[in-house]
């Protein structure tokens, strides 16, 4: 599945266009590599997302095309969250 679509379906980022912008700015790494919106992600990949002053590292547990809002968090596990100094 494309990275931008995974971010939207899992609701880590609410809109696919916003997910694409975040990817284009180089704020997302997949398995340690800066990733583009079209990067293919698979189960077991580790993703690092930088949101302003916060960095979140998640592991992809499940890939699904359609997920209900309440089931979205089961698609990933949060490994760590850390604050970034400005």
UniProtKB/TrEMBL annotation:
Family statement: Belongs to the RqcP family.
Question: What is one Gene Ontology biological process annotated in the Swiss-Prot or TrEMBL record?
Answer: rescue of stalled ribosome
An example of a Pfam family matching this protein is: S4
UniProt protein name? RQC P-site tRNA stabilizing factor
What role is this protein assigned? Key component of the ribosome quality control system (RQC), a ribosome-associated complex that mediates the extraction of incompletely synthesized nascent chains from stalled ribosomes and their subsequent degradation. RqcH recruits Ala-charged tRNA, and with RqcP directs the elongation of stalled nascent chains on 50S ribosomal subunits, leading to non-templated C-terminal alanine extensions (Ala tail). The Ala tail promotes nascent chain degradation. RqcP is associated with the translocation-like movement of the peptidyl-tRNA from the A-site into the P-site.
Q: Does the UniProt entry include the keyword Cytoplasm? A: no
**UniProt KW Protein biosynthesis keyword:** yes
**Alphabetical list of CDD domains matching this protein:** S4
Which proteins does it associate with, and in what oligomeric form?
Associates with stalled 50S ribosomal subunits. Binds to RqcH, 23S rRNA and the P-site tRNA. Does not require RqcH for association with 50S subunits.
- Tree of life domain: Bacteria
Which InterPro entries has this protein been placed in? Answer: RqcP, S4_RNA-bd, S4_RNA-bd_sf
Q: Which residues form the RNA-binding S4 domain?
A: 1-64
Q: Name one GO molecular function term.
A: tRNA binding
Keywords, A to Z, come to: Protein biosynthesis, RNA-binding, rRNA-binding, tRNA-binding
- Gene name, per UniProt, is rqcP
């Amino acid at each position: 599945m494309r990275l931008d679509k995974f971010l939207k379906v899992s609701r880590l980022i609410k809109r696919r266009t916003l997910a694409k912008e975040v990817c284009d700015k180089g704020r997302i790494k997949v398995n340690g590599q800066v990733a583009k919106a079209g990067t293919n992600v698979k189960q077991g990949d580790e993703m690092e997302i930088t949101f302003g002053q916060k960095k979140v590292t998640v592991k992809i547990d499940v890939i699904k095309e359609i997920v209900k809002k309440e089931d979205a968090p089961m698609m990933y596990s949060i490994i760590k969250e850390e604050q970034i100094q400005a």
